[in-house]
Amino acid sequence: MAVVVQKYGGSSVADATSIKRVAQRIVATKKAGHDVVVVVSAMGDTTDELLDLAEQVSPLPPGRELDMLLTSGERISMALLAMAIANLGLESRSFTGSQAGVITNSAHGNARIIDVTPGRIQSAIDEGAIPIVAGFQGVSQDSKDITTLGRGGSDTTAVALAAALTADVCEIYTDVDGVFTADPRIVPTARNIPRISYEEMMEMAASGAKILHLRCVEYARRYGVPIHVRSSFSVKEGTWVVGSLATAETTNEGNEMEQPIISGVAHDRSEAKITVVGVPDKVGEAAAIFTALADAEINIDMIVQNVSAASTGRTDISFTLPANDGQTAMNTLNKLQEKLGFDSLRYNDQVGKVSLIGAGMRSHPGVSARFFDAIAGAGVNIEMISTSEIRISVVVGMDQVDEAVAAAHRAFDLDSDQVEAVVYGGTGR
Amino acid sequence: MAVVVQKYGGSSVADATSIKRVAQRIVATKKAGHDVVVVVSAMGDTTDELLDLAEQVSPLPPGRELDMLLTSGERISMALLAMAIANLGLESRSFTGSQAGVITNSAHGNARIIDVTPGRIQSAIDEGAIPIVAGFQGVSQDSKDITTLGRGGSDTTAVALAAALTADVCEIYTDVDGVFTADPRIVPTARNIPRISYEEMMEMAASGAKILHLRCVEYARRYGVPIHVRSSFSVKEGTWVVGSLATAETTNEGNEMEQPIISGVAHDRSEAKITVVGVPDKVGEAAAIFTALADAEINIDMIVQNVSAASTGRTDISFTLPANDGQTAMNTLNKLQEKLGFDSLRYNDQVGKVSLIGAGMRSHPGVSARFFDAIAGAGVNIEMISTSEIRISVVVGMDQVDEAVAAAHRAFDLDSDQVEAVVYGGTGR
User: Fold this and answer.
1) Complex ipTM > 0.85
2) Which of B53, B58, B68 sits opposite A86 (nearest CB)?
């Protein structure tokens, strides 16, 4: 008998009909002989509606109270789901994050999980009941206040519970069939990726693939929790996110080396590019720039510095950052112009990042060359390049992202013979 | 510095505008130098909307899950109210029933308060913050599950907290100016009652006055908590519900005996009358009837048995009960007909109860006679009569309730010179 943690997002429990459908799926898993623990998000637009109410009473609500407010969303969906399961004849009990033992720090709105003590969840399992746990929420260790985990919170709750319960798998249900080799809306021939390593999935998430949050994959990797991303609208196998060894062992499909080394192409249109022009080429200039930006709590993604032109003694430094932080970053740097002595700043938010992700990329020469060739062949100009062990990213013009993704996808033979990807949405399928 | 517990019902926090208005009232109380603890109900129709959702997923939801669902309502209103107060520059913290230390038994949907351990509330007060507590909810002592207190629950939460904190007063805010000598919709000249004893208020509540629930008044009486019922739409004094001695001491208005002995006229249209016709006049017949009804969990209100007619050896027994339970009661009694040997059953839900309430009624002869005279003078036929130390109730035809109430109100000089009563409703005044 396996322990299975299943996480259902807001679109899977958007209304009473969806909740009843999810209940049937949970009951089927239980009847197949597994111990099921469910993690659930708030219904559909609940969180936005609650935020709207908060805005009406206060322009800047205290974090503690905002967390208290928002956590009512999962309270509603989890109680309804437990009722729907009870109506199918099985016992089910809902638990808040606090009741489930999700202990966090006190950072309201973006709390970190410190510990998980799932005593009540384990008792419910032992008594044959199906526990339904509120995702996205916990209780602070110090003040016993209700907290929320921030972006990707419900997925993280599911993985953390799976780790604490030493579950066999953490199933993340969504409205697509898994992780694809590219966004199916851009590349209709994109294929579902059957297996991917934690590291590659982390690169995919960091490169703009929205299906799993980076934080949840990091947590799963640290505790070795196998994740199965799949659709709540079909019974197809989705994407397994696993450690490299675990993959070979658990799936028994033979040698890892036979896998294609390229997992997929991700893209991200949410970033902007800033170029600091004419930075004096002396020690400590780059450090001063990025320290100032870090002090302003701005996360920098890619950084490129060209070799200094000997004739001028000056260099250009370009970096990308979330476009939301663009204004703050420009203000911060403008204040430093006199002190640092650079010539000017250039800002461009009409950019996009295209990334090729694949394990063992470095050990296969020619991957970079083929990637750049493909992009050039599509008539797309590359503005910046950055690489890691298992990723190559380029920055291109925003309106050329689609062409670059499609060209790279084709160049690495990722296209399937037919259109496989189905984005289900709320059609009830 | 006094400790004041203020309870705001759903109509007082129905939307963002109302919540901001209530926040101003709370802040004004705090700035006047009092320590304020607030108890709040769910916003407007939230509870009905949640019940509707529950009905959509399950025809008979488990009590534990229904409580989990419904308690999200206060979670929303209390967080928003705390935000609105913070926006006015004061610190405020919201607490669930569980966090506030409201410990109950495990009777989901109708839990009884076993203990109140308001350690976190006291700490918040000591630190100068305004605690906002969710009404209507608690946590079960045995299983640590979330419970709800059932009808009148939020008022009871407020009184229980006031008792545990030895508050100086528990203010119950509503949409009328207090307790009136009769329902102002029936008797436009009804007056606000400035002071009333717990016992009279309990009789008023049991006789159909909806402004305070019987249970909350019982709790206040047991722990000697003064209740001040008043409107959240005005600053007028409302009605003080107090112990008889406390009244004279605290208000210093002189001798209790100078008060008019009649407090008011209450009415109730929610009951039905059942007559068991031709009950054999022998020992144990009445006991058998009412034991059967008690076993069916039916609450009986008035019971009247006429003297047996010597010639037949049979008697009639009439009683009133909530009309909702009428069908169950008739079924229960029909099954007993052969065993008990009565002739037939008569059912009438077109009845109403009119009650005259006043301390010391028994020691003032002639009150009953004047009450019956007044009703007869209005052309209303009396079907049943029952009395207590401080109450006389009659059952009349439902369509004659208004006339009977008005006539009694007039006969005991309860009319004011002018129309005083204002029912505020949601007009924002």
Assistant:
1) no
2) B58
